[in-house]
Amino acid sequence: MKRLAIIGSGDLAQQISHHATSDSQYMITGCFDDFKSTEQFSNNLPILGKIDSIKKCFDQGIFDELIIGIGYNHMNFRQELYLQLEKTIPFATIIHSSCFIDKTASIGKGTIIYPGCNIDMNTSIGENCLIYNGTIIAHDSQISSNTIISPGVQIAGFCKIKEHVVLGIGTIVSDNIEISKNVITGAGTVIVNHITESGLYVGIPAKKIKS
Prior knowledge:
- By secondary structure, the chain is α/β, with parallel strands linked by helices.
- It has helices at 11-22, 54-59, 75-85; strands at residues 2-7, 26-32, 41-42, 45-49, 65-68, 94-95, 100-101, 106-107, 112-113, 118-119, 124-125, 130-131, 136-137, 142-143, 148-149, 154-155, 160-161, 166-167, 172-173, 178-179, 183-185, 190-191, 199-202, 207-210.
- The protein is built from three helices and 24 strands.
């Protein structure tokens, strides 16, 4: 069983640790956190050091693979960390065993897919993504890197979701829709037209309420 280290030690890191270990995929060696000391623990997970010590710990053989446990409030930081580290540190791809992943689908490294997701044929999911519980992504849709998809989101076929998108819980995306970079949707938003501008969108149908 491979040893996994997590960047961050908050709620998201705890969720990742729970799913990775309860699904018997990884042993968690600990977390990297700039705001805690190595003498501390986070829900029984040891703090291995600050983020700038990741490379040293990997070279010392403390862990085998890495994952980012930092959420939607820090999208740029998530991407910066991934791009900084992915060429020298192996990133995990964590897919819960309860998911259906069609054999023609592709999943990028650093991506986490939570329990109960359904990823259909010819779907592609980029690197460093978070796909939460019960998400459905229909055939031939493309999810770009560094995207977060909340629980219960439904994405129809032939959709294209660009980078830095956060789809809120229960968002529905109609077929053949394109969503540009840096878009956030509120809970229960229904998207029936292309979104070409960044910002916060809510409602049925989706309307921009904030840039």
